[in-house]
Write a structure and sequence with these properties.
The two termini are about 25 Å apart. Strands 8-9-10-5-11-12 form a 6-stranded mixed sheet, with helices on both faces. It has a 4-stranded antiparallel sheet with strand order 4-3-6-7. The chain has a domain at about 40-145 and about 195-290: P-loop containing nucleotide triphosphate hydrolases (Rossmann fold, 3-Layer(aba) Sandwich), CATH 3.40.50.300. A hairpin with a 6-residue loop joins strand 6 and strand 7 (about 120). Helix 5 crosses helix 6 and helix 5 (about 150-155) packs parallel to helix 8 (about 195-205). The chain has helices at about 25-35, 40-50, 95-100, 125-130, 150-155, 165-180, 180-185, 195-205, 225-240, 255-260, 275-280, 285-290; strands at about 10, 20, 55-65, 65-75, 80-85, 105-115, 120, 135-140, 215, 245-250, 260-265, 270-275. Helices cover about 35% and strands about 25% of the residues. It is an alpha/beta fold and about 290 residues long. The protein binds adenosine-5'-triphosphate and magnesium ion (MG).
Length: about 290
């Protein structure tokens, strides 16, 4: 191996396509962990949310079984704003969304929704109640549509918690009115949809319940660039057009940080860095570790 190639490894995950990069995945983890040592203060978390938090996670310790994945994790995002979590594989990003939606074991801490003086403690609500009573929707990471059902039936499934089936159908019509592309395919089986259309269906199904808060795990995963742009345009409209609050995880750190008002870098279950999305995007450390720059 020539001298200049030393230490080069083919890495994947944070880069589009397979390219040779100087930093190996192990190095990213080690260097990111070093960043985490400094931590991020509670004041910083609050000020990034303009001291006007709507979805708030306080001192959360959560995981699966006996295993604690998130350690003293804090998060704040104001109503109608977006927050993106980036970080290495296994950092616990999805676990944050799982915790908000009620899929983890919570050892300690609190999750609330609503502005000051109007908080609803959702820490131990069931997932159904999170959706029905707290207006939180979780958009699954891929492969969650029912392939043997039509597009329209898939949307109706999104309203399964409504009291009457007619309500779900009505709500589905509102979604169809907004997304013509989906309406054109309403009688098609979900299995024949393209990857981008399937993602649109996954997002739309979550919208049937008209949630206030969207938890989105890796919206761009597995999509070709034009569909990635489409998905981010839809999310942009949901935030800026409809005032939804969005908390997302994105492996494509550039897209995620460009989109989000607030960004957190999660490393080993702790927040290593936090800042406005565009500032994190411009940060040389973030660039080096997560943007392949
Ligand atoms: N359902 C589960 N049961 C047990 N352990 C889990 C479960 N889901 C995740 N874990 C573990 O929790 C840790 C954090 O996983 P998580 O999925 O939150 O990471 P992530 O940051 O989303 O990673 P990725 O970028 O690969 O999606 C990992 O060690 C993982 O193995
Ligand atoms: Mg994940």
């Amino acid at each position: 191996m020539a001298g200049e190639d030393k230490g080069k490894k083919a890495a994947s995950g944070y880069h589009q396509g397979s390219v040779e990069t100087i930093i190996s995945v192990e190095d990213v983890n080690r260097q990111a962990a070093a960043l985490a040592k400094e931590g991020v203060s509670a004041e910083r978390i609050a000020s990034l949310a303009n001291n006007d938090s709507y979805v708030t996670i306080e001192n959360l310790r959560a995981g699966y079984g006996k295993m604690e994945i998130l350690h003293d994790f804090n998060l704040q995002v104001p109503k109608g704003k977006s927050l993106c979590l980036i970080g290495p594989n296994g950092a616990g990003k999805s676990t944050v969304l799982h915790s908000i939606f009620g899929f983890t074991r919570i050892f300690d801490g609190r999750i609330t929704v609503g502005g000051k003086g109007n908080e609803l403690d959702v820490t131990s609500l069931s997932s159904n109640d999170k959706l029905k009573k707290a207006g939180i929707a979780y958009i699954l990471q891929d492969k969650s549509v029912f392939p043997g059902m039509t597009v329209e039936e898939n949307l109706w499934m999104g309203g399964y918690l409504m009291d009457k089936p007619e309500q779900a159908k009505e709500a589905a019509e509102k979604v169809f009115a907004k997304y013509g592309r989906l309406a054109e395919r309403r009688k098609h089986l979900a299995r024949v949809l393209s990857g981008g259309e399937r993602r649109l269906l996954e997002i739309s199904r979550a919208l049937v319940m008209d949630p206030e808060i969207l938890l989105v795990d890796e919206p761009s995963i597995g999509l070709e660039p034009r569909f990635i742009d489409m998905v981010f345009e839809i999310l942009d409209d949901l935030q800026h057009g409809e005032g939804k609050t969005i908390i997302m995880v994105e492996q494509n750190a550039k897209k995620g940080l460009e989109f989000a008002d607030i960004g957190y870098v999660l490393v080993s279950g702790e927040t290593a860095m936090a800042g406005p999305g565009d500032e994190l995007l411009a940060d040389p450390e973030v660039g080096r570790l997560f943007l392949g720059g």
